[in-house]
Write a structure and sequence with these properties.
By secondary structure, the protein is mostly beta strands. The protein is built from 3 helices and 31 strands.
Length: 394
């Protein structure tokens, strides 16, 4: 696989060199094709994971300031998310692919390497201790994988089997703790455990008791602390942000959602300095009016959340994290319309990107949150496939 990838990279370099020489002979008033295709790793750009929910997915890059999609559609798995580290894009190819795929954003997002993290393990996330060591959470496994992030060499595992749920409404426990998102804060790494009841007769994976936040000791690869979420089922990427005068790690815990939806969760803030959750929710599902599936917080007075109610109506709202109050609705779609909101990201420049999951017109909406929140794109920046995850290339 590696030799084949090297050959593809060399071929691409030759093509791009030809394009560069052709364009160099002409006066260019806007970025040339070689620049748009090659150098997509600007920290102003947003990487987008897209999918057809079946045969495959694509990795795209958009420029939120210019309002267009850059050339290129790198093939990835249909069930994937992404992380950005050390100038590279790491694609976590999930269920039934079980690989980490590394892209070079300054070589037309060419795949540099791809390696397995265990067949059937369903990887969920990767977090980097440094450029020699990373952790991979695996949904269908009882252990965190420790690897060399650029080669995939296995360095060890951390057993989490003792954190699996102890009871099941179906009578048989599944034995998996459902490890999911991870986040690095300083020299500490935290991992979320959903602890779902896969054998529940309901069939929709309700949480089985409490969900946990574990702290990993990166020096000896052991679990050093265990914390209980106030609600359950940590669902979307955590966000690290200075809020209320000090850093916090923010999570959404929607508890029961989808076909078993209840207003029983919210957005929670964990203070790593005091090793404690802030009391209450920054935004409760009762106030939001549905399951909070994604969020981004700008400061103590302004945050954004993607909400799905029990009747499958969808909306994106702004709210005040200090008071927990709803401010306004940015986007709203009734259940009779097939459009959903998938992926939400607030950039360093305070641009809010919202993924529009519309099979006919998928794309990304951009809002400027500097001052009053205003819509920058009249229509969504078009994509070929449905967006599901967004990353900032920083």
């Amino acid at each position: 696989m590696v030799s084949k990838l090297k050959h593809e990279v060399l071929t691409l370099k030759k093509i791009l060199l030809f394009l560069f020489l052709v364009n160099a002979c002409n006066e260019i008033k806007r970025p040339g094709l070689e620049s748009l295709l090659l150098f997509q790793g600007s920290p102003r750009n947003i990487g987008v994971i897209t999918t057809d929910f079946g045969g495959g997915g694509r990795y795209n890059v958009i420029d939120p300031n210019a309002g267009y999609t850059l050339p290129g559609n790198t093939p990835i798995h249909s069930d994937a998310v992404a992380r950005f580290f050390d100038g590279k894009v790491f694609i976590i190819n999930r269920l039934n692919k079980d690989t980490i795929q590394i892209l070079n954003p300054n070589l037309a997002n060419t795949t540099e390497t791809e390696y397995s993290v265990g067949q059937g393990t369903n990887p969920q996330d990767i977090v980097f201790v440094n450029n020699r060591k990373a952790y991979v959470s695996r949904y269908n496994s009882t252990s965190i994988l420790i690897i060399q992030p650029y080669t995939g060499q296995t360095l060890g595992e951390i057993d989490l089997s003792i954190y699996s749920e102890s009871t099941s409404a179906g009578g048989t426990i599944d034995g998996k703790p459902e490890m999911s998102w991870m986040v690095k804060y300083g020299d500490r790494v935290f991992i979320t455990l959903q602890r779902l009841d896969r054998n529940s007769p309901l069939g929709f994976l309700p949480p089985s008791g409490k969900s946990f936040l574990l702290e990993i000791n990166t020096n000896d690869d052991t679990i050093s602390n265990t914390f209980e979420f106030q609600s359950a089922n940590p669902f979307s990427k955590p966000q690290v942000i200075d809020i209320f005068g000090e850093p916090h790690i923010i999570f959404t815990t929607p508890n029961r959602l989808g076909f078993i939806s209840e207003l029983d969760g919210g957005i929670e803030a964990f203070n790593p300095s005091s090793n404690s959750f802030r009391s209450g929710f920054l935004l409760s599902e009762t106030t939001a009016g549905g399951d909070i599936l994604g969020f981004q917080i700008k400061n103590s007075e302004l945050g954004f959340a993607s909400v799905l109610d029990k009747s499958f109506n969808k909306k994106v709202i702004s709210f005040n994290p200090s008071t927990g109050q709803n401010i306004s609705t940015l986007l709203e779609v009734p259940n009779s319309v097939g459009t959903n909101f998938s992926g939400i990201l607030l950039t360093q420049e305070s641009l809010l990107a919202i993924g529009i999951s519309d099979f006919r017109n998928p794309g990304i909406m951009i809002y400027d949150t500097n001052g009053s929140v205003r819509q920058l794109t009249l229509t969504a920046i078009p994509l070929a496939l449905t967006p599901v995850d967004l990353i900032e290339l920083k």
